[in-house]
Amino acid sequence: MRFTFFSVLLSFSILLLVSSFSASAATSQKVDILVLSTDHQSVPNVGISLIPINIPKTGYATAPEPQVVHQIDTQFSPHILMAQMGAEISFPNADNVKHHVYSFSEAKKFELRLYKEEKPEPIPFDKAGTVTLGCNIHDWMLGYVYVVDTPYFAKTNESGFVQLELPAGDYELRLHNPLLQFEDSEFVKLVKVSGTQNITMSLKQPLLRATDGFDEGDEFDAY
Questions:
Q1: Where is 190: in which H helix or E strand?
Q2: Rounded CA gap, 143 and 135, in Å?
Q3: What is the pLDDT of residues 190-208, one digit of tens each?
Q4: Could you give the CA distance from residue 77 to residue 147 in angstroms, rounded to a whole number?
Q5: Which of 124, 123, 130 is closest to 106 using CA atoms?
């Protein structure tokens, strides 16, 4: 009987310890991230992703939220979209001209042929990576979808700042933006989250120069 009592007591203690660890891991911690250029200026519109490297996926897995990339004034809006792997993305056309949206990117190849009022079915983005968007009719239209295998992502605001809440643990922090050069787009910072903390990401290389768009008087503008 004594053996049974101590066995139960030991099992209860182990269960309590595991539960305590799980609760600790699940407690959200605030992480403030600031992105600065090589001349110490804030950098807006930079995607931030924090990918867990020591947390079981069952501890943080969430269903990806549907996303939308609008076509407004012959531009993709938003120009840069962050999406969790597995998310479905819609591409509604709000213009009074037709668009032909496509991507040849390895992470997602697709094509939405000429459409205007029609609303194409959402497309699942089920592979992590960078997806470059284009329009076969309006060559200046460019957009970028960064598909990440984590629910912890966001974009910096006009002050180059973003705040994320995530469980304690170890993460890989990555930056996403088409104007980042190689050293910054491929850089991975290991981050240990154990409480509220501030992180400054200083770019190693200057941002690339943005490509100027075509004039609105393009010969296909009224197609």
A1: strand 189-193
A2: 9
A3: 999 998 899 999 999 999 9
A4: 16
A5: 130
